[in-house]
């Protein structure tokens, strides 16, 4: 499943130049390049990418897209059939796709390269995910929104006392992403009829759960 909700960067294309300043995505950077790790691999939808830490690229062909982690940048490259190389930058989340130049030393940047020959190792614990859409009111499946795992409970109303109404949104996916952006938010309900989104910091399975064909719900996998 492709990861949604990227934030397009504005303005002219910038070259992927080095900087020594630590940025707001330090934890995402440390996941791949922490504790002295200098390189590795990341797998996106059966596509393997190798990566090299503190490495940029001397040239780019597209304007950057701001994303919150290396795996989302790799997912964007995987979705672009012409993309074999990309660079993600810790300082501002910039993801440069289809970088045609040569590798350069660049603290805080991570260069990734698609390996079109490698086959990912089977993961016995892998859970197949589905898009965050309720086509069946009895569906109970796992989805991902902005990289976060969620358990879908379609056609379900949680017995939450006074959940927070955050306004109308166009889909359950948008409602889930609203919760993703709120610290401590753990579950959501979205009304198909009036499109109101409700979020709460409660684990809604701890309360009464009832069937309701007009409401789709989801619980964050923690």
UniProtKB/TrEMBL annotation:
Any matching Pfam family: PAN_4
Stated name of the protein: Apple domain-containing protein
Transmembrane parts of this sequence: none
Annotated keywords: Signal
Signal peptide positions (record): 1-18
Apple domain residues: 60-97, 159-211
InterPro entries linked: Pan_app
The keyword Transmembrane is assigned to this record: no
């Amino acid at each position: 499943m492709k990861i949604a909700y990227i934030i397009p960067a504005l303005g002219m294309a910038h070259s992927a130049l080095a900087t020594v300043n630590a940025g707001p995505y330090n934890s995402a950077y440390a996941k791949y390049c922490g504790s002295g790790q200098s390189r590795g691999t990341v797998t996106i939808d059966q596509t393997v990418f190798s990566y090299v830490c503190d490495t940029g690229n001397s040239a780019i062909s597209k304007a950057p897209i701001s994303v919150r982690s290396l795996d989302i940048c790799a997912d964007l490259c995987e979705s672009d059939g012409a993309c074999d190389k990309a660079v993600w930058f810790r300082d501002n989340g910039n993801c440069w796709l289809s970088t045609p130049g040569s590798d350069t030393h660049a603290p805080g940047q991570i260069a990734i390269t698609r390996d079109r020959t490698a086959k990912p190792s089977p993961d016995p614990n892998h859970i197949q995910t589905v898009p965050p859409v309720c086509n069946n009111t009895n569906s109970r499946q796992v989805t991902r929104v902005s990289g976060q795992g969620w358990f879908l409970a379609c056609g379900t109303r949680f017995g939450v006392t006074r959940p927070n109404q955050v306004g109308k949104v166009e889909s359950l996916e948008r409602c889930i992403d609203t919760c993703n952006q709120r610290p401590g938010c753990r579950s959501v309900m979205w009304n198909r009829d009036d499109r109101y989104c409700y979020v709460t910091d409660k684990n809604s399975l701890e309360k009464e759960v009832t069937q309701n064909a007009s409401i789709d719900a989801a619980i964050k996998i923690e």
